[in-house]
Each structure stands twice: as C-alpha cells, then as structure tokens.
Design a protein that fits this description.
379 residues; alpha+beta; Rossmann fold; Dna Ligase, domain 1; D-amino Acid Aminotransferase, Chain A, domain 1; 3 domains; four-stranded parallel β-sheet; globular
Amino acid sequence: MTAIAPGGTIGIVGGGQLGRMMTMAARSMGYDVHVLDADAGCPARGVATHFTHAALDDVEALVKLARACDVVTLEIERAGTAGLDAAAAHTPVRPSAAVLHVIQDRARQKRWLEEHGFPVGPYREVSSAAECEAAVDALGPTVLKTCSGGYDGRGQARIAAPDEAGAAWSSLGGLRCVAEQFLPLDRELSVMVARRPGGELSTFPAALNHHEHGILAWSVLPAPIPPTVAAEADRLARGIAEACALEGVLAVEFFMLADGTLLVNELAPRPHNSFHGTERACDTSQFEQAVRAVCDLPLGDAEVVRPTAIANVLGDLWSEGRPPFADALRTASLRLHLYGKKDPRAGRKMGHLSACGATAAEALERVHGAWNVLARRGV
C-alpha cells in the first residue's frame, strides 16, 4: 500500500457534523478536502476546500468526486453503494461499498454478525403484521426497528404484547423490520476501532453512553466498567474489523447485561457521536484517526490521557431563545462545540459540550452542570 501524504485530497461523502469535524482534522494535517452532500448548507461546506452539491446516491457525481480525490471516505451510512462501487474504479473508497452494504440493512447486519460468530440479542426478521405478531408472541416485549433509514430513535416502536404488533407495524410504514427482544440492559457501551489497508489496527477504550428518547444524551470516556468487560468489548470490536476487512474507522455499539454479557447492537462505519470526547481525552482524536486510517498513515495513540465526558446540545435548548452559552462556559474545563447549523429544532444535534476531570465521574459532573445551565436549570 502507498500512503496518501498530506497535501493530497480526501473526498468525504456526507457533509454533516461528522464530516465537518473530519474535515477540520484533515485540513489541520495539510490535506485538501472535497465534500459531497445533498444539503447546500451542510455543516462541512464552510470548512471544506471543495464542495459538490449532489445526492448521496448520485453515481455520476460520486465518480466525479473520486476522479478529483486521492481517497474517498464516508461520514454517513446512507451513501449509495452502486455509486461507491463505481467510484472505486478511479480511487480507493474506504470503508468499501461491501462493508457499507452489510451495515445499511439491520437484518443483513445481524445475519452477518451471527454468521461470523459475534453475539447478538434474540431477534426475528419480519415483513408483515402477522410476522410481527408472531415475533412478539415468541420473544415477548419487543423493540421493532425498520431495517433501513432509522437513526436517533427514529424508525422504532416498542411492543409490549402481541395484540399491539399490528399498530406498531403500521406506525413504521409497513416496512421490513427487525423485531428485537427487549432486554434488561445494565449499560450501553461503544468501542471505536481503526484499521489501515495494510492491517494495522487500533482501538479507543470503551465509552459509556446514555440515551434519552433514542438520542445519545451523554457519553464518558473511559467507561467505568470492569477490566474484563472492557477487554471483551475490545476483542469483539477488533474481531469485527478484521472479519469485514475494514479500511477506516468503525464504531461498535454494545448492550451490556447485568451479568457483564456483551451483545452487539449496531455498527457504524464512520466517526461516532460517543467518541467526540477523544478530541480532549486522547492524543489522537477519532477524526484524525479516521484520516490516518483511510490515508494509510501510521495510526495515532488512542489511549485516554484524561477522562472526558460529552453532552449533546439539541435544538430543544433554543425553545426560550439562544441558550446562555457564556454562563455555561464558566464551568471548569468546559468547551463548547457548535456545528454551524442555522435552524435549531427539537431533537436536532446542534453541537456538544465537553469537559475533562481527574476521574470519569468528575468529568461527567462538570458537563452535566454546564448542560443544566444551558437548559436554564442552574442560571
């Protein structure tokens, strides 16, 4: 493999906040960045060197992007695999369309994990209201998730009993779904793994995550979990990256049961919300690591130097006017990260807060305190 040295051009499919932060890391390393997105006002456009306004599945546009770049990577799973395959004839695409194909469909992803020996919770694939009812009858209380398109809690419905299955199925548009057994979770964790084309692999320590209404509310790094659980999460993440021949970064989300058992929830072949704290916790952020991995450069040190917590800043906080950022910034060690989005609305990720501490608990206490100030609970 030949490394793509600083001075080259990286193409990023998707221009959301992840693309913005990856672009900023790449630009600081001396790369030009060409972003493609369907939103002309996307967050990454203001920091990219070049921008193409096109749909994520526009084959012609993706081929043109590839011809203009030394490597193409992703910040979103909804990129078109046909276009990425066509682009790969002109420049490396990392992660590959094959990896994306597995991940884009929940049922396909779960089958792949099972076939490769990775643990998942009990589930059934359903394609009708009757199959949904049968799944709930077999599994008990269930979470119904559309096979594609859902994120941040969208495309999901909880079902307590079989007689609720029909309504839940209809509420999700009668689409193909996965019915997952509702599990008594102790914690939710994630591990970020990076892998170069030549096979060098590195992982960030596990993060502990807390969701509200299906959206990540806060995350802390490193997760306060037993060393045996942390080691198993790391082993599984590395195994998944090797099994799919990853080139780039991959977030592996886990459910942890009360006895410490880990089950793989979902995979994301891109930087991940739960590892935003790596910009402060580690010598190498997840965004720089993604750049290093896709450019086939030596991977950076991913160990945690100091515990860090993040809390998402959603559009809900603008309901009474602009949040009191200046007041929140009085919090020790706090930093504010806004994504340049112009239209705050409920549930939309506008940015995040980060804070460091001597311990994970102290970092989390600081970021919670600052978030409460923004929510006008402590002003």
